[in-house]
């Protein structure tokens, strides 16, 4: 649904031709930089923590941005529905850059964590504002292609980000992993400024401020943060304390998320609610399992870290390839078919990892299986984005885009925290890994069950 202030153009032009070229390059660059920073921090954080003596805040440096990102998503979604995506995009990029500056100049771990919180707030808002920009500027037939490009922009950093970050930290300083990105954010934003100026000429707002949703977002963020931290809590005198904290955090997160997503989402109502739910379940299954695959290969198969990381590279390449294929197929591949096939592929890969762990099969099977999982995500992720916009009106594009991003964030966060608790609950490493893959397989099965409900046709 394109902004009425923009000239109509023919979709056959493609996303890399006029008038879309510079907007495509600029938006993909912003997605790339946000993804690169997320992956790069994972590589350098052990060094940062050691230098700043911040072991006690290590987990918070990762959980904090995820939590504040939920607040940014809701705020940007409501603001975009009121005024369009221009001002929210300016502010989100500004917050993202400010967070990088704070973290990059930090001389203590609390200051670095503060920078990460600001960075997460801006990053969450950035994602939603970009989705609304896509809805207002690109015609529907081009949505599969631009979201495929976004997927590629997320995947490519997984190939080069960790190595590049490690090299910068080794040759220069870890500070430049944060500060170097700031200088690249400005030219990326500049490419889309002409479009944003046109989008600022919007009519008077018809959508009120939803301060209540912001309050629920804060509560959801606290619940996500609490669940992540509960995985680190061990109370010897009260063995069940961790489980109690975890259950309470999950319940609180589910209560808080209800007003932030379309009605019926948690009940898997057909149509948009199931689209949003499918996105969260897919994220939870995929990312909950992925972080333990390199660990499995190192711990159980004596792989060196560099070789174990190739598992993630294979999945990333398959994700990018499948996203490109579905983008070219367009409407020739029905949305429901893409989502169902992708969900089954992710579940099959997680089950293969579980079998490899429990039955001591060759590691090559789990490695090959994760390429299957990446391909599944490449099929379903862009299509769920397309469906979200297709099922939205101009008045609720921001709300629905933020709901999709919140489902992503909460799904991944809840899964990672839960797998952390499960991993620590068993006495042997084989049982721990089997428990993690078993849990993520159950989540993957739920995604398969929800997939047929993403369309309203029975």
Please tell me about this protein's structure.
With 458 residues, the chain is mainly α. It has three domains: 1-206, Growth Hormone, Chain: A (Up-down Bundle), CATH 1.20.1250; 210-260; 263-458, MFS general substrate transporter like domains (Growth Hormone, Chain: A). Helix content is 76%, strand content 0%. It is built from 17 helices and no strands. Helix 5 packs antiparallel against helix 13. The protein is globular, with a radius of gyration of 21 Å. The two termini are 26 Å apart. Mean pLDDT is 83; it is low at 1-9.
List the helices and strands and how they pair.
Layout: H1 21-51, H2 58-83, H3 86-104, H4 109-137, H5 143-171, H6 175-190, H7 193-199, H8 211-230, H9 241-257, H10 272-290, H11 293-301, H12 305-308, H13 310-329, H14 335-359, H15 363-390, H16 397-425, H17 429-450
